[in-house]
């Protein structure tokens, strides 16, 4: 919440800066009274809306509309302000040049040739508008055009991308997989973030798409909520519809602990909230694994399902997971499948346990922005996480990073769409 308030203050500063800059141009509509009224009415209403989302218990739909408006407005105005900043820097350079030029001229000192040759005539310094559009007006209008790009793109990502669930199919080759599990269908979901949703019908459509795959087993790899157990109120019954004959196994993600709402210090409210999230998963029929494991049995053959609490390699995320504790009792399992929310855990600890065959993670969301095709993928998040989307392999160990079912912050997706991963377990070596 402090993050939202801080950015609201930054947005208010941008409002003042852009407004004054527009009024200083020769753009006619920017000087009109109607423009002033519309500009400040929208800005004030948005600021009031943001404060209300922080301190009042608004309906989820209203809160979502306010946050959507805030996010798009913030990004658009940052882009727009950059163009005015460029013009102000240019103006400042001209002002400094003029002062130096006049100072040297008054002192009767000749300017160096390399300087005097580059100085504009005095008339041009006093009035840079000669014929046609001035540089300031040109930059302002260019800024408006280019600021429309993120506005249009992000708006389209909300309208078309937020609930555009895509099924990604992946064969998972495991050399020691028991024959009874060959061909088994496993579905992974991750990063639901219930508190961000504003369309129950669309979410139900995503869950029905999962059920249409008829999975044998389902994995959920963390972040069921943004912060609070109460976010599940309108969606718990929808997620309870998930069924699989061999069970639904889940773990906690960094957001499930409530630390972004209650802080890092222990408190009764924080502990109670976490217990409600755990209870909700049990009531939905999910088997929540808290540094523990289960044996999955088919036709007298078994594999191990292991789940750890959140553990991230960075300093920003909680380290609750105990991998060694979770592995206790799995020594005789021919194949071990591990659920761990944060993919940075794989390189930091899991690769030191070569008996863990495959790890299933989420967390990155693919930053909800980028490009993803069958043969190419890119997102800014790859500069933060080495493993951020899809299948990775090192030696005989594999990691799959799901880019998430829901969204957080920006209420949409551009290029990196919400994911339902369908694995087909295969006995043998990867032919690739």
Automatic annotation (TrEMBL):
Statement: the UniProt record of this protein carries the keyword ATP-binding: no
Superkingdom of origin organism: Bacteria
Membrane spanning stretches: 39-58, 65-86, 144-163
CDD domains hit by this protein: MPP_YkuE_C
Domain called Calcineurin-like phosphoesterase: residue spans: 184-366
Entry-linked InterPro entries: Calcineurin-like_PHP, Metallo-depent_PP-like, Metallophosphoesterase_sf
Keyword Membrane recorded: yes
Entry-linked Gene3D superfamilies: 3.60.21.10
Keywords: Hydrolase, Membrane, Metal-binding, Transmembrane, Transmembrane helix
PANTHER family with a match to the protein in the record: PHOSPHODIESTERASE YAEI, TRANSMEMBRANE PROTEIN WITH METALLOPHOSPHOESTERASE DOMAIN-RELATED
Protein name: Metallophosphoesterase
Organism annotation: Albibacterium profundi
């Amino acid at each position: 919440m402090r993050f939202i308030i801080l950015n609201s203050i930054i947005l208010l500063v941008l409002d003042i800066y852009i407004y004054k800059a527009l009024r200083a141009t020769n753009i006619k509509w920017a000087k009109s009274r109607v423009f002033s009224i519309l500009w400040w009415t929208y800005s004030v209403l948005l600021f009031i809306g943001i404060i209300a989302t922080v301190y009042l218990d608004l309906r989820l739909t209203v809160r979502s509309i306010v946050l959507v408006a805030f996010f798009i407005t913030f990004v658009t105005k940052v882009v727009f302000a950059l163009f005015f900043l460029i013009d102000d820097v240019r103006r400042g350079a001209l002002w400094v040049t003029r002062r130096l030029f006049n100072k040297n001229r008054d002192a009767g000192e000749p300017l160096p040739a390399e300087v005097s040759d580059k100085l504009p005539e005095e008339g041009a310094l006093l009035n840079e508008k000669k014929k046609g559009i001035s540089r300031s007006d040109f930059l302002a209008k260019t800024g408006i055009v280019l600021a429309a790009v993120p506005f249009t793109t992000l708006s389209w990502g909300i309208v078309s991308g937020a609930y555009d669930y895509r099924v990604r199919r992946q064969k998972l080759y495991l050399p020691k997989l028991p024959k009874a599990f060959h061909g088994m269908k496993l579905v992974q979901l991750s990063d639901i973030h219930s508190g961000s949703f504003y369309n129950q019908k669309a979410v139900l459509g995503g869950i029905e798409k999962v059920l249409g795959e008829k999975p044998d087993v389902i994995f959920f790899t963390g972040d069921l909520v943004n912060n609070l157990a109460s976010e599940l109120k309108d969606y718990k019954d929808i997620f309870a519809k998930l069924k699989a004959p061999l069970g639904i196994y889940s773990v906690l993600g960094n957001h499930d602990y409530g630390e972004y709402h209650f802080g890092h210090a222990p408190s009764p409210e924080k502990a109670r909230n976490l217990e409600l999230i755990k209870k909700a998963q049990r009531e939905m029929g999910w088997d929540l694994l808290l540094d523990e494991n289960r044996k999955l049995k088919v036709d007298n053959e078994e594999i191990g399902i292991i789940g750890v609490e959140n553990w991230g390699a960075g300093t920003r995320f909680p380290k609750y997971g105990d991998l060694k504790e979770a592995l206790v009792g799995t020594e005789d399992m021919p194949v071990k499948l591990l659920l761990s929310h944060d993919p940075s855990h794989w390189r930091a600890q899991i690769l030191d346990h070569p008996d863990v065959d495959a790890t299933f993670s989420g967390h990155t969301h693919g930053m909800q922005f980028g490009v993803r095709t069958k043969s190419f993928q890119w997102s800014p998040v790859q500069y933060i996480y080495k493993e951020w989307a899809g299948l990775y392999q090192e030696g005989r160990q594999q990691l799959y990073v799901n880019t998430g079912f829901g969204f957080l912050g920006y209420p949409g997706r551009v290029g990196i769409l919400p994911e339902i991963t369908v694995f087909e377990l295969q006995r043998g070596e990867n032919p690739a």
